[in-house]
Specification:
Blueprint: H1 2-32, H2 36-45, H3 47-73, H4 78-83, H5 91-117
Helix pairs in contact: 1-5, 3-5
Amino acid sequence: MYESLTIFISGITVIVGIFGLYLFLKFLSVWKNTDSEIIKARVSRSEKFLMKNILLIFIVGLLIVYHNFMEFLGLAYPDFYFGYLSVRYPTRLIAVTELLLALLITEWLMYKWIEITRE
């Protein structure tokens, strides 16, 4: 059960990653045409936006650190989950879902930056 769900979430992560690449390229094209003083004014005017950026970057960092910790302990590898049937929680599924969540948060943040840099 968890194997097919893990494969499904991994596939979604790849699709979302490709969309993230599109957002990044769009952000670069918008960034070149935007005056840096306008960006500074828009960001400083919205203190809430700046605090959300700092908080989201911190959360993404924590998710990546937690994922790497799971890999360090050997909990994120498929052979751990499928080799021990007494494990009651799907560690590989959790590891893949963390990466998907980190990617979604990063893409949402990039989308917000694209909105701010538009004229």
